[in-house]
Amino acid sequence: MPLLIDQRHLLFEMKNMKKALALLIFIIILSTACGSESDALHKLVEDYTQSVNRLDLSLAQSIWSQIDDVSFIYLRGHQKGWEEIRQSFYLGAMSNFSKRDLRIKNLSIRLIDENSAWGDFYWDFSAIFKDGKRIKTEGRETQIWKKEEGSWKIVHVHYSAMPVTGEREGF
Fold first, then answer.
1. Which of 142, 144, 148, 156 is nearest to 79 (CA)?
2. For residues 27 and 10, what is the distance between their CA atoms, to the nearest angstrom?
3. How far is CA 43 from the centre of its chain?
4. 35: which residues sit within 8 A by CB, 6+ positions away?
5. DSSP string over 22-35
6. pLDDT tens readout for residues 119-152
7. Measured between alpha carbons, how far is 37 from 27 in angstroms, rounded to an integer?
8. Residue 102 · residue 123 · CB < 8 Å
9. For residue 82, which of 74, 73, 72, 97 has the smallest C-alpha distance?
10. Quick check: 75 and 160 in contact, CB under 8 A?
11. C-beta separation of 121 from 105 below 8 A
12. The pTM is what?
């Protein structure tokens, strides 16, 4: 017995519903995976913040990639390799303070693929020099991350002061 038009339409709709259901399941799985990656990267940035605030070299070493071409560009220099970053930023610049308080705001994370991502954010930094004088700065930062052996690591940081908007500034 030949199928009626309504039956053919019903079969067509059922096939489309199966495709839609498969797509929905795929989106749910993908969003769950992206959510867990995003959570891991948020934790990495939290650990970075704590490595600065506590001047915790062990934590810092655990979050930075140990490959030769990691880099860090900041207001006091441009370091390449973990050892230069450790010496110049952590043991150099950050060791000038008896207390540090780095606070991150507006963190935005973008996954490039399953093993690479980048993010940017604004920060406020308050600190007390060892002589008791206080400093407060603010800026913005971009970080690039790479997954190594299942863990996210920092491979590049670039931070700078806030933009200037006055006449004849920022050129």
1. 156
2. 25
3. 9
4. none
5. HHHHHHHHHHHHHH
6. 999 999 999 999 999 999 999 999 999 999 999 9
7. 15
8. yes
9. 72
10. yes
11. yes
12. 0.78
